[in-house]
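Lecture notes, unit on binding sites. The following record was shown on slide 14. It pairs a sequence with flavin-adenine dinucleotide.
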Amino acid sequence: MAKEKIAVVIIGGGLAGLMAAAAAVRQGARVTVVTSGPGTVAMGGGGVSFRELDAEQADLQAAVELFTDMMAAAGCRYQGEITASRLIPNALGGFRQVSLAPAAVWAAGVEDHQEVCIAGWRGWSGFNAQLTAELLNQTAANSGLRVTYRAAVLEPADWINGEFNALSIALQLNDAEQRKKLAALLRPLLKGSQLLLLPFLLGTTTGDQELEEFAAAVGCPVGEMAHMAPAASGLRIYGRLQKYLQRCGVEFRTAYPARLLHFRRNCCQAVVLDTPGRPCVVKADRFIVATGTINSHRLILESLSGRQEVAETVAVNECQQLLDRESRPVAGNLYAAGSLVAGGQGYNGNAFALLSGYKAGRAAAKGDEL
Ligand SMILES: Cc1cc2nc3c(=O)[nH]c(=O)nc-3n(C[C@H](O)[C@H](O)[C@H](O)COP(=O)(O)OP(=O)(O)OC[C@H]3O[C@@H](n4cnc5c(N)ncnc54)[C@H](O)[C@@H]3O)c2cc1C
């Protein structure tokens, strides 16, 4: 008879939770992700910086390999490496060091002696190509970077229906015909530029193939840069990653937050979801809490000895087991990952989510304990 798979439930479907799901599935576990919504990675560009992490630490290479393999298979290829770094511009005229990024974001990176055309639309209050080009030229000159930015401004197109913002444009650019129309408008504006820069708007479901076809139709590499959240790039990454994990067998229970983890003795038994009417109870062998800090819903740990709320930030041991105030594991089978864990916020948020998610997913699937 086939051996029953270990059941792992992950609470929180941000980057840390999805990475934990990937790692646990790879270890042969049966995985369910319970999440109240997408994580903050869906609001940004998806860039990863390892600047404040020890690049040599155990598991980092393996975590990054799993992540980049998974993103390539999901049709959203990442470029870069742990020890690399590239300056990526943003719409506010700044540059940010990034080690890994989706191909379209990576393409936006600074190259010596490059002439870059930044395209925008007249009358779009959320993005002013002229201002961005001026600010980037100033910052580049102050930082000794030999790159020149110039703006090309399009008239608002009749195919942009509804509100004139990045998300509505991105949603319409999910359609291949609209991308073709935009490419035809942009091509004559290049005038010898080696790179075309756009804010994050090239579709929310588009993949590598569609973006490569778009660049070919424009006639030069196309890069995307950060402006205001939500970002099409993050939505694209998130959607594709979730679909890929579903294809790998991960079950998603979305929309309702978990409100309670139920314990018996030293063991977490089940998670209770805040569903309308009768609460939904999901049992498993092991549990990972990856509820983040920005959209986190209250989560209670309930045992015979009482109730206690999961703190805003928590500590973990080397096995990623969630620790109590006395630094003892709360339960043998309860792990934590992501920005909820102390030290996991800030500039390296995505890098920390990848690494801690990977470690927690593996540990939970294998049953590692200290
Ligand atoms: C606008 C923006 C841009 C950013 N840009 C960058 C960047 O460029 N580079 C970088 O490194 N970092 C960036 N960050 C930070 C980075 O996104 C986060 O640090 C990292 O992705 C955190 O991942 P996480 O999975 O720990 O948490 P989150 O992404 O917050 O995910 C937590 C998940 O848990 C779910 N959840 C919460 N409570 C419950 C509950 N009780 N039950 C069920 N589900 C629950 C939430 O819905 C969410 O899905 C950015 C953040 C923001 C807001």
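Take-home: Residues 11-17, 34-41, 43-45, 47-49, 229, 257-258, 290-292, 294-297, 299, 338-339, 345, 348-351, 353 surround flavin-adenine dinucleotide (CB under 6 Å).
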